[in-house]
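Sanity check

After download, print the first record. It should look like this:
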Amino acid sequence: MARVTLSLGSNLGDKRGNIAKALSALDAGGARILTRSADYRTEPWGPVAQDWFVNACAVAETELAPHDLLALCLRVEQELGRVREVKWGPRVIDIDILTYDDLEVNTPSLMLPHPYLAERAFVLVPLAEIAPDLKLGRKMIADILADLNCSGITKLA
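Expected structure tokens:
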């Protein structure tokens, strides 16, 4: 059984509802959700002008191999209505695999740990809430987060 961390984000429609539906579908599909963070309102990231996001993270257990877990994530995104028109553009749901145990993967379709993880406060803030001692390389997530600008990230009630 592998322990994985996931990031979820939405900035179209019922943002919080989209994340809840995605977590439920992931759990039903073989990624048993152990814990999840609160939802956070975050500013959009990247070159495309768009509405604010709701982001959250989850820790899950799975017997799925890394690429099978990726296939599940992509299937859930599609089932919830994700359309990939513009890179880093608006989305109903985005699900990223952040870590898969201590495994390192570098294939055209999957890189683990997630290649942008250490740069994204909007991911690290919710991740630090549920896994502050998780290590990325030799540094703990909480220590990486301390070096990032976290303005514009608000925990939702």
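If your output differs, re-run the checksum step. Summary of this record's structure: Helices lie at 15-29, 66-79, 121-130, 141-146.
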